[in-house]
Write a sequence for this structure.
């Protein structure tokens, strides 16, 4: 029990560290720009809540809060924030106004620092590699639900999907050029699948369905009920397991079970038969050669329906995309998500986005894997780009709002009155908080429904237990 608790605590520390790093770097950009432009900085704080450490260095208070949730910079000349943050430092005289240019530079510095951190992390990923699961890189169908929309339309296991609604696909999952995203993002009465079957290309129009969910769950998105081809390739072998006893090794591909071809994991498990503890002959491809083995499955472990083999299926490979390709993919992903959100015919709504709880849950899932840091850093590239672009939205209390107000001030050659500005900021702050509360409601509901947040796949996502 103790090692499991230690493992959970370690992951929690890693999640808190990287999440706070991304937020603090953003706030550091504001702080350094404010010091460069000569603005008054009341306080630079890491974390929120009651300070456990606070000291004045020069004319700036530095603090460490008791709630590990990011950081903040108090810049009273940028905009009056008393209505939102509470009273700032007592002053004998009002502060001098600052120029619109200074406001724009200081507000822009946060998103710039987030973007630079994204590039830095993308460079690390380029160097150490990004883990990619082979199951996510195929567009070949391995499973079609009997009686489902795809089955009724005529899609079959073995079909390789080339295009969906005229748009090319190169992977099964993910937010870019993937089969699942194109299905979710479709808007017509039917979905056009261009597939390759037996060397011939053909187009099949499929219907779609949605599951009925309670109101406290996220609205179900379009589904045709197909899955990727899962080749029985060994990604991991547990010590002391039936797979180890059989002589299976990482990288083996099982090609036959009980003398029959094993083209997919579903076929492989069917070939094992219903009896446990009985040796089953298998053939694996290893280093270009066929090797005959015998495996003796044991009864399923609790929570599993499959025989226990002690294998994590699917091989991981490391790819090394350039930093610019990673940043460009992140920008395109965000663009696709916003395009889906604002399209009147799209099923994607605000409730399908994630707030802090969903993001922390995604990080926890990433760290809870053998390639945790590689996956977390790769995901952080997207998160930093998202943080930069989200803060550039033209809403007061966001950086883009400060820039918009500064441009209005420059155009009319006078600042917006303090009372009006405070009212606008308070209204926008409440709107942002309401949105975060809304998406957080669904993030929390995922815990009770057992639904996983949208996130990159774990290396051992498909495992025999």
């Amino acid at each position: 029990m103790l090692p499991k608790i230690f493992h959970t605590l370690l992951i929690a520390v890693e999640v808190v560290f990287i999440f706070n790093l991304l937020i603090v770097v953003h706030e550091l950009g504001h702080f350094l720009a404010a010091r460069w432009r000569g603005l008054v900085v009341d306080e630079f704080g890491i974390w929120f809540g009651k300070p456990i450490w606070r000291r004045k260095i020069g004319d700036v208070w530095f603090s460490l809060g008791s709630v590990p949730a990011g950081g903040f910079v108090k810049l009273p000349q940028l905009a009056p924030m008393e209505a939102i943050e509470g009273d700032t430092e007592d002053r004998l005289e009002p502060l001098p106004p600052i120029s619109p240019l200074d406001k724009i530079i200081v507000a822009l510095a946060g998103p710039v620092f987030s973007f630079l951190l994204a590039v830095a992390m993308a460079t690390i990923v380029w160097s150490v590699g990004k883990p990619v699961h082979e199951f996510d890189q195929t567009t070949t169908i391995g499973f079609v639900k009997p009686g489902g929309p795809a089955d009724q339309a005529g899609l079959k296991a073995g079909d390789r999907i080339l295009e969906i609604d005229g748009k090319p696909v190169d992977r099964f999952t993910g937010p870019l050029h993937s089969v699942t995203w194109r299905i979710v993002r479709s808007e017509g009465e039917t979905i056009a699948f261009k597939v390759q079957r037996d060397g011939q290309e053909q187009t099949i129009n499929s219907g779609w369905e949605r599951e009925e969910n309670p109101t406290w769950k996220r609205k179900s998105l379009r589904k045709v009920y197909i899955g990727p081809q899962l080749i029985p390739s060994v990604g991991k072998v547990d010590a002391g397991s039936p797979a180890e006893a059989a002589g299976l090794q990482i990288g083996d591909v099982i090609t036959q079970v009980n003398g029959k071809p094993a083209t997919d994991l579903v076929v492989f498990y069917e070939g094992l038969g219903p009896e446990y503890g009985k040796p089953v002959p298998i053939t694996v491809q290893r280093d270009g050669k066929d090797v005959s083995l015998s495996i003796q499955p044991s009864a399923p472990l609790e929570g599993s329906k499959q025989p226990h083999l002690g294998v994590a299926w699917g091989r991981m490979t490391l790819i090394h995309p350039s930093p610019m390709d990673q940043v460009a993919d992140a920008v395109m992903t965000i663009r696709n998500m916003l395009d889906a959100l604002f399209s009147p015919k799209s099923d994607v709504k605000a409730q399908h986005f994630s707030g802090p709880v969903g993001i922390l849950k995604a990080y926890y899932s990433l760290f809870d894997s053998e390639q945790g840091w590689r996956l977390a850093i790769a995901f952080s590239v997207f998160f930093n780009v998202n943080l930069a672009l989200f803060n550039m939205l033209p809403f007061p209390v966001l950086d883009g709002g400060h820039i918009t107000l500064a441009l209005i001030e420059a155009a009319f050659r006078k600042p917006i009155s303090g009372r009006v500005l405070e009212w606008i900021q308070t209204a926008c702050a409440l709107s942002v908080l309401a949105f975060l509360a809304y998406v957080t409601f669904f993030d929390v509901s995922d815990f009770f429904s057992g639904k996983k947040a949208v996130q990159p796949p774990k290396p051992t996502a498909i495992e025999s237990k």
